[in-house]
Specification:
- The complex is a heterotrimer.
- Chain B is mainly alpha-helical.
- Chain B has helices spanning 7-30, 37-40, 59-83, 85-113, 120-126, 128-131.
- Chain B has a single domain (20-126), classed as Up-down Bundle (Methane Monooxygenase Hydroxylase, Chain G, domain 1), CATH 1.20.58.1610.
- Chain B contains six helices and no strands.
- In chain C, helix 15 packs antiparallel against helix 16.
- A two-stranded antiparallel ribbon of chain C has the order 1-2.
- By secondary structure, chain C is mostly helical.
- The chains are: A mainly alpha, B mainly alpha, C mainly alpha.
- Chains in contact: A-B, A-C.
- Chains A and C meet through helix 6, helix 8, helix 9, helix 11 and helix 16 of A and strand 1, helix 5, helix 6, helix 24 and helix 25 of C.
Chain lengths: 480, 139, 623
């Protein structure tokens, strides 16, 4: 057995932090400062560990350990470098919510940390079973987070819906693993790829059914249409402080797993799944855009927009392994944007609140020019306006699709992106070109949210203007 | 692919669902069918039902039952380790040790938080700090 | 050295807008405007110094690389400095600087004085990015930024509902054009694997078939028609005058609308391979020219006359570039930017002096009250009408001459152009007479006065340019043609007529202009005729196109495909835009019932999707 503790170091560090936090909390009830310290140490340690993985094992040195269960490669390491800081930002943005939950706040911190661990496990798994374990660890934490505040019924509703539908999707995914195993005789991702390359299946039906079910399970997690219907209800119902991490983390982890399963394990079968993925992408883009146009609630609108964004990211995956760097670019930049957008929503409409009616944002520019400016920037970035990271991301995924001869998909994407601009712009118009209500006053911005917004704003513009370093980097973010 | 290999399964599925459908359908057709309002009531003992037949359990029951299931299921892992005890050696002992530690830690947490206390009222008198902040706004 | 200057030309206004964005509120009023004006003037200076080499004939086209932007696309953030972009830069910054200067006077006392100059500077910087781009991606960046700035500026006084609506309308109609433009870019990239101008244009003959070139050309035309307000996407421009008058001047003269013409000229290599696309450009241009001129004849609002006049003149430019007379097209772009800026600023001066009155029926007799404005406007009037030796005559004549010279069906276009010239002279004369001559018809309490020097000086400068601007390219001295020669080296240019043909054609257009002026002078000499008949109302309302757009798109949603997904706070936007909004809301509304929020519905979605995917995969598996 080739053991390499570095392979599990991020998980181990986070789990140690979690155990310590739980034990200390239940015994001494030390208060929020200590939660923050434990979380910061866990996240910093895990980030350092994945950074070390990145330095030592990306590219040719990639390998898998623990009986071919966990990989250390550029792919998993980069995923970790996105996920763990994302968890940190998520906690910072959610801090008012955490404090409002009294003694239960520590559990919130723990759940976010465990979710991050699960997400990284999904990205770094070298075996479908491991991937499933990561998926469940991640998902179950999110189910609880979605309903974390108990004072509102709609948050419970959101959590229950998320749980029920997520369980269905997980079951389908697990069945897919079983069928793929039945067809190839292994659950190892590398093993499946080798088997499919070296063997001609005379009766691929079982494999095909397995592929379909794997795709369903993962498409659900990333909220691609028509598996998206949970997203608007859950995003709208979940407390404002949670939603950002919920949306961002699910995208990162889901697409990491999807890229590994489709592009690596089933890479030899790209001709079978690429058209299906392309159709999923097109349906998601069009449906997400059209439905986002008619929303009157910011969080719900962002949910539909995230469906459309899932479609754009899928656009990169039709190119198979060649599209992975472009996929990462889009996923990473979009994840921080959506986290920040929901952060603004939680500041304006309330950290424990679910709904964020657009009327809350009328004349925001005069109530808080700072928040309005950030939200405006994020809207422009999501719409894909040049000189923001969003534009480069769209250009990158479209390039992938063009290279893979999916011009029709690109045209669908471009047209929808243009149409999509209107609902993003609508928010800006509301904020800047309409007067605020008389009674609504200045909005204080909590420190954590401020840090998140500044960081994301700077990143979005910086990467938008100078995307090349990141794009170069991502050439190494390839799976084993 | 030809599905011939799955033909027996298909036949079996067909037979099974056919049997169910036929027996249910037959009894519906053959059996006498004279409904009266009293017959359709949940209890035919002459008392008008006051509430839905589904019993209400204390929510605590679910919590304890769930915790039991969780800890029970974890035993399965120990079983797998036990039957291969010699082959797995010290690595196995180490792994299962960590696993058990995590389980114990969970148990301790659950216990300390009071999830195993059946009588909430009594507990709240003893340690109000545990119960009070759960749903209220504190900070 | 030259590279640094070229970069500075963009960075100065860009920096100005950044400074004003943060400090605009704190600076005392004129200072913000002065800073903005100086940055643009500085940009002009940089461009002028950099362009000296070209004038002496020594200069070579060069690329100024800023940084790798997206090398995988063959895209650097880099500027291309050649003669065409040099000319465009000089026009944009030169006219732009004068408009900035004028704005200091015009915007005096506005609550958001600093913010206005922030946008104005950003507008100039965006336009410079557009004309200095050396690849399609940078061009697109500029293209989008210009759209954004126009939106900000047109709806600058967003307290007025019409202004906010006009801004949205401009933005939305431009987006329709942008769809064509982006799809064209995608097709270009799919075929060339690069966005770089030099790569694309050099390898175009080998890579593109005529069919593909035609497709790209037509898609580009959609984009250009949106930006340059051609049929059928012109509807935003007349409303765009809801913005402050200097903005109208900037949009109509130096920036924004010229982008389409510039883009067609720049992509001449592709249009050269696609005669059908080029012909379509010319036909669209000619049709727009005549169509807009007839509408301009019946307008009563002084700025609306000028707005439709711009559309009409842009039609000329399209006709020129469509006929492969790129030099003539760009030449007219240049002269037009002089006299149209002058006309708008003059109109602004009139409106300023009349306390905001824009209806020509309530003007008249202003020539004594506003002598400087009157004198300069007269020059612009004669220039746009095509009276030699003023600027408009030479450029318009060159376009018409080239079109005629191509013979065949092009002669029809020439006829249309000539008729438009007559109409142009007519409606401009009508405007001049209603405004400056005759008896005063002012409202009570209006006391017209001349504008301050800060406003009249730009007028005088532009008037000078309108007089001499045409002399750079006359049949006797084709300086501009020589200047631009290297740019259009690879492109087959259309022939400019010479000898007696040239004289005859010039005579024809002068006669047309004189007829137009004469008719209008007779009609409006000493009275304001009743213009409420059916034909006048028809033309005055722009043939009810806005209303028709609204009806068509709103009532029969089936006409437009589902991709017309525009919903943008449809209330308050008239015409086409409202229709599209309603259409999309409806489409979204149809989809909405699917989202019941019940878990069972969502689960059904999952199951249906799963079944569909299973079906596909099993079918692929040969079941």
């Amino acid at each position: 057995m080739n053991m390499n503790l570095l392979a599990v170091a991020p998980e181990v560090i986070v789990v140690v932090a979690v155990v310590a936090l739980l034990m200390i909390d239940v015994q001494w009830r030390p208060g929020p400062v200590w939660w923050a310290i434990a979380a910061a140490m866990g996240i910093a340690g895990a980030t350092a560990a994945v950074a070390l993985q990145w330095v030592d094992y990306r590219g040719a040195d990639a390998a898998s350990f623990f009986s071919d269960m966990i990989a250390i490669d550029g792919f998993g390491a980069f995923a970790g470098m996105v996920i763990f800081p994302l968890a940190g930002l998520g906690l910072m943005a959610a801090w008012p919510l955490i404090r409002s939950q009294g003694g239960r706040g520590a559990e919130f911190v723990v759940l976010v940390l465990i979710a991050a661990t699960g997400a990284h496990l999904m990205a770094a798994a070298a075996n479908l079973i491991m991937l499933f374990v990561g998926l469940e660890v991640f998902s179950i934490s999110l189910y609880v987070l979605a309903g974390f505040t108990r004072e509102r019924v709609d948050a419970d509703e959101a959590a229950l819906k998320y749980f029920l539908l997520g369980a269905v999707a997980s079951a389908i995914f697990l069945y897919g693993i079983a069928l793929v195993y039945a067809s190839t005789g292994t659950t190892s991702i590398g093993g499946i790829a080798t088997y499919l390359r070296s063997t001609i299946l005379l009766r691929p039906g079982v494999l095909m059914a397995g592929m379909a079910m794997l795709l369903v399970g993962l498409a659900f997690k990333v909220s691609a249409a028509p598996f998206h219907m949970w997203a608007p209800d859950v995003y709208q119902g979940a407390p404002g402080g949670v939603t950002g991490f919920l949306a961002a983390g699910a995208k990162v982890a889901g697409f990491a797993a999807m890229a590994r399963v489709l592009a690596v394990a089933l890479g030899g079968r790209i001709d079978d799944w690429a058209p299906a993925v392309a159709v999923l992408a097109a349906v998601s883009i069009v449906l997400g855009t059209l439905l986002a146009l008619v929303q009157s609630d910011l969080k719900r609108m962002l949910a539909y927009s995230s469906v459309a964004h899932a479609g754009f990211i899928l656009t990169a995956l039709v190119a198979g392994a060649n599209g992975i760097p472009d996929m990462w670019f889009y996923v990473a930049t979009y994840a921080v944007q959506v986290l920040a957008a929901f952060t603004v929503a939680s500041v304006v409409s309330g950290a424990t609140q679910g709904r964020a009616p657009l009327s809350d944002y009328t004349g925001l520019a005069s109530r808080s020019p700072w928040l309005a400016g950030m939200l405006g920037l994020l809207m422009l970035a999501m719409a894909g306006i040049p000189l923001t990271a969003g534009f480069v991301g769209k250009a990158a995924v479209f390039r992938s699709a063009i290279d893979a001869d999916y011009l029709w998909l690109v045209i669908v994407g471009v047209v929808s992106a243009v149409a999509g601009l209107f609902f993003y712009l609508r928010v800006i118009v509301l904020m800047y070109m309409q007067a605020a209500d008389e009674e609504s006053g200045h909005i204080p911005v909590p420190g954590g949210a401020r840090v998140v917004l500044v960081a994301v704003g700077v990143l979005t513009v910086l990467i938008g203007v100078v995307p090349w370093p990141l794009l170069t980097w991502l050439r190494d973010a390839l799976p084993l | 692919m030809s599905l011939s290999a799955y033909l027996p399964i298909a036949i079996m599925a067909l037979l099974a669902s056919g049997f169910a459908a036929i027996s249910l359908g037959l009894s519906r057709l053959i059996a006498p069918h004279n409904p009266t309002p009293e017959k359709l009531d949940p209890y035919e003992c002459g008392i008008v039902p006051l509430q839905e037949p589904v019993q209400r359990f204390p929510v605590k029951f679910y919590l304890v039952a769930m915790l039991f299931v969780i800890f029970d299921v974890e035993i399965v892992f120990l079983f797998a380790w036990a039957v291969r005890f010699t082959q797995l050696g010290w690595y196995g002992i180490g792994a299962v040790g960590i696993f058990t530690l995590l389980l114990i830690e969970t148990l301790v947490y659950v216990w300390k938080r009071g999830a195993l206390d059946w009588n909430v009222a009594r507990r709240s008198r003893r340690r109000p700090a545990v119960v009070e902040p759960l749903t209220e706004k504190a900070a | 050295m030259t590279g640094t200057l070229v970069s500075l030309a963009i960075l100065l206004p860009l920096g100005g807008s950044v400074v004003l964005l943060f400090a605009g509120k704190r600076l005392p009023e004129p200072l913000a405007g002065v800073i903005a004006t100086l940055t643009v003037a500085g940009a002009f200076g940089c461009a002028a110094v950099a362009a000296v080499d070209f004038l002496t004939g020594a200069g070579e086209a060069l690329t100024v690389r800023w940084f790798d932007w997206m090398p995988a696309f063959g895209v650097d953030a880099s500027l291309g400095w050649d003669r065409l972009s040099a000319l465009m830069t000089l026009v944009v910054t030169g006219v732009g600087a004068l408009i900035h200067l004028y704005s200091i006077g015009y915007m005096k006392g506005d609550a958001r004085f600093g913010r206005f100059f922030t946008y104005l500077n950003l507008f100039i910087a965006s336009m410079l990015i557009l004309v200095l781009a050396d690849n399609f991606a940078m061009l697109f960046v500029g293209w989008e930024l210009v759209g954004l700035c126009s939106y900000l500026l047109i709806s600058f006084w967003f307290e007025r509902e019409t202004a906010a609506a006009a801004g949205k309308k401009a933005f939305i109609v431009n987006r329709v054009g942008d769809v064509g433009f982006i799809v064209a870019l995608m097709v270009v990239f799919a075929h060339f694997g690069s966005f770089r101008f030099d790569t694309v244009f050099e390898s175009a003959p080998e890579v593109l078939t005529t069919g593909t070139a035609t497709a790209i050309g037509l898609l580009l035309l959609v984009g250009a028609a949106g930006k340059s307000a051609q049929l059928p996407l012109y509807v935003w421009l007349p409303d765009a005058m809801e913005g402050p008058t200097p903005v109208s001047a900037l949009i109509h003269a130096a920036t924004m609308v010229t982008a389409g013409v510039y883009m067609v000229a720049r992509t001449g290599a592709i249009f050269g391979m696609a005669p059908i696309a080029a012909g379509t450009v010319a036909v669209v241009g000619a049709a727009t020219a005549l169509y807009a001129a007839t509408i301009a004849v019946a307008q009563t609002d002084i700025k609306r006359v000028l707005a439709y006049s711009t559309i009409s003149q842009l039609g000329y430019m399209f006709m020129g570039v469509g006929a492969a007379a790129y030099v003539a097209g760009v030449f007219h772009l240049m002269t037009h930017s002089f006299f149209k800026a002058l006309l708008f600023l003059g109109a602004g001066s009139v409106i300023h002096g009349m306390h905001g009155e824009q209806d020509m029926a309530k003007m008249g007799g202003l020539r004594r009250k506003m002598p400087a404005t009157f004198a300069t406007m007269t020059i612009a009037w004669l220039a746009i009408s095509g009276i030699p030796p003023l600027a408009g005559f030479w450029s318009k004549d060159e376009i018409l001459g080239t079109v005629f010279e191509r013979g065949g069906a092009w002669t029809v276009l020439w006829g249309v152009g000539l008729l438009t010239a007559l109409l142009t002279a007519f409606y401009m004369t009508r405007m001049m007479w209603l405004t400056f001559f005759g008896e005063p018809r002012w409202d009570d309490g209006v006391h017209p006065h001349e504008s301050p020097a800060v406003m009249t000086i730009p007028l005088l400068a532009l008037a000078g340019l309108s007089v001499v601007g045409g002399l750079v390219n006359t049949p006797f001295r084709t300086t501009l043609e020589h200047f631009l020669d290297p740019v259009f080296d690879a492109v087959r240019l259309a022939h400019v007529p010479t000898g007696s043909t040239a004289v005859a054609l010039a005579g024809a257009s002068v006669i047309a202009a004189l007829i137009g002026i004469g008719l209008a002078a007779l009609r409006y000499r000493d009275r304001v005729p009743d213009e409420t008949g059916f034909a006048w109302r028809l033309m005055g309302r722009g043939y009810y196109v806005d209303d028709v757009y609204g009806q068509v798109f709103a009532r029969s949603g089936k006409l437009a495909a589902a991709w017309l997904a525009f919903r943008f706070d449809a209330r308050g936007i008239d015409g086409a835009v409202e229709g599209m909004g309603a259409l999309t809301r409806k489409t979204g509304g149809w989809l909405r019932p699917i989202q019941t929020g019940f878990v069972r519905t969502s689960a059904a979605g999952v199951v249906l999707g799963a079944v569909a995917l299973l079906g596909w995969f099993l079918w692929r598996g040969g079941l």
